[in-house]
Amino acid sequence: MSMEIKVPELPESVSEATVGEWHVAAGDSVDRDQNVVDLETDKVMLEVPATAAGTIKEIRVEAGQTVHAGDVLAIVEEGEGGAAGGADDTSSDDASPTASDEDTDDGEDKDDGDHPIPSPAARKLMDEHGLAAGDVKGSGKDGRITKGDVLSAVEDKPEAPAPAKSKPQAEPAADTDKAPASADKADQAAIKAGAGERLEQRVPMTRIRARIAERLLEATQSTAMLTTFNEVDMQAVTDVRDRYKEKFEKDHDVRLGFMSFFVKAAVEALKRFPVVNASIDAEDIVYHGYYDVGIAVSSPRGLLVPILRDADQLSYAEIESSIRSLGKRAQESKITMDELSGGTFTITNGGVFGSMLSTPILNPPQSAILGMHAVNDRPMVVDGEIRVRPMMYLALSYDHRIIDGRDAVLFLRTIKELIEDPARLLLQI
Asked: What's this protein's family per the entry (predicted)?
């Protein structure tokens, strides 16, 4: 009996999705609930499971195409599933999981049964770079070769003169619309592919990149954004970390970082300046009586801002643990829509990449965002003497329509004072 694998109901406010990487090919055996394909929305990555155990009979939508809720992605013929497929290694080549009709019909020596077959996206990239299945080590299910594996192999491949072409051509746009091992690897592979030639490559934005661009443009065009700066001496916080980091990690099974101090300081400052925690709704100012702090984290698909709910009620250990969990799941594209929704204030830390100073852009409908930066030793005048201190620049971007310059400056100064004297956080003074 054949069953359809359909696009699931999409999250609220999301109308369509882009088909990402297929983890199976026609003829593959699958188990019930096994992830067969990734769908990329403008906010999260969704996994689509097999509706039944059996064999993939047909894949109807290729990677890179746009789909809507209810669209049929593939057909699965019910059977024994993946376990049965793996037991047929000693049978004929036609039944072997490392060969398919597509591989033998085209007459090309690509996959001879001694190597796992690549995914459709990986095969296309292998053909373009002249790689055979034996040249790439697969990391997917049953050793299947993914596009990320091919990109890694391309990077490791010795430089060779580019093949003669009648005229330079840009690589197909579909090559980069599926999530690679990382955005950096995809960019590097594209550059290496055109080494020695004056090539240009035109590719469509991923959904999340297009959404990021849309929201950043919205923030700059629909708000009266202004940024104020200050600097903070990190010596006190550094001393606390050095003194208690081993015991903290032992007791809570998580490292003590700077972020928990800044979250605590930001919440205390938000309590003192409620307008910074507010937002504009039409002609009204909405004051929030809770503190949902967004933490900007990087992912292979771009910058995401998951939310720490009720941050004022979290301990230092709970904040550090939550941030660590969110960061890990962001890397794995497993952040949920609920975790990205809402938020009354955002903190972003460009310092982890070495940024010295920046002007962070607002995350609408929020009215303010705090930017942390790198900690660098600098000569400072302390008690009339020049001393070397670990200093960090802070930036607060805010919507000047509802936040006056005075409140913004005092808010940022409050954070500075709390960080420079962490005991204030405990005493709330």
From this structure: Belongs to the 2-oxoacid dehydrogenase family.
| pLDDT tens digits along 35-59 | 888 888 776 778 888 888 888 888 9
Are 52 and 32 in contact, with CB atoms under 8 Å apart?
yes
Catalytic center residues: 400, 404
HEC readout, the chain = CEEEEECCCCCCCCCCEEEEEECCCCCCEECCCCEEEEEECCCCEEEEECCCCEEEEEECCCCCCEECCCCEEEEEEECCCHHHHHCCCCCCHHHCCCCCHHHHHCCCCCCCCCCCCECHHHHHHHHHHCCCHHHCCCCCHHHCECHHHHHHHHHHCCCCCCCCCCCCCCCCHHHHCCCCCCHHHHHHHHHHHCCCCCCCCCCCCCHHHHHHHHHHHHHHHHCCEEEEEEEEECHHHHHHHHHHHHHHHHHHCCCCCHHHHHHHHHHHHHHHCHHHHCEEECCEEECCCCCCEEECEEECCEEECCEECCHHHCCHHHHHHHHHHHHHHHHCCCCCHHHHCCCCEEEEEHHHHCCCCCCCCCCCCECEEEEECCEEEEEEEECCEEEEEEEEEEEEEEECCCCCHHHHHHHHHHHHHHHHCCHHHHHCC
Question: What's the pLDDT tens digit per position in 176-231?
Answer: 333 444 556 666 666 665 566 778 888 877 777 787 888 888 888 889 999 999 99
**Which residues of the chain register pLDDT less than 70?**
12-13, 43, 80-117, 119-122, 124, 140-142, 147-148, 155-196
Tell me the C-alpha distance between 162 and 194, whole Å: 8
First to last CA, the chain: 69
